[in-house]
Write a structure and sequence with these properties.
Arc Repressor Mutant, subunit A, 8% strand, globular
Length: 102
């Protein structure tokens, strides 16, 4: 089950366009398991393809960046998002402006 769910997470996160973000809960919902947002975080923490699976585009429900971003911390996540045109203010993204709408 875990590997299948993780693979669903990776495939879903790959679809988030540059310049957009999704929340952990949004990814869990899209994977058919709306109560598994923590497992989404765990899956992304184990990202087998950094740079291919854009885990930096996933944020908390309030737009906050993950302080435990697995691939360099909040500073790296901020830089990666800003390079894609996503404005980060005080460690937060404006979800009204940058949320990936499906």
């Amino acid at each position: 089950m875990q590997n299948n769910f993780f693979n669903q997470v990776y495939q879903t996160v790959k679809q988030i366009p540059k310049g957009k973000v999704a929340t952990y809960g949004q990814i869990a919902l899209l994977c058919g398991n709306p109560k598994m947002s923590r497992q989404v975080g765990w899956a992304l923490h184990q990202n087998p393809q950094p740079g291919v699976i854009p885990c930096h585009r996933v944020v908390f429900a309030n737009g906050s960046l993950a302080s435990g971003f697995a691939f360099g911390g909040i500073e790296i996540q901020t830089c990666l998002l800003q390079e894609e045109g996503v404005e980060v203010i005080n460690g937060k993204v404006n979800l009204n402006k940058y949320r990936w709408e499906i």
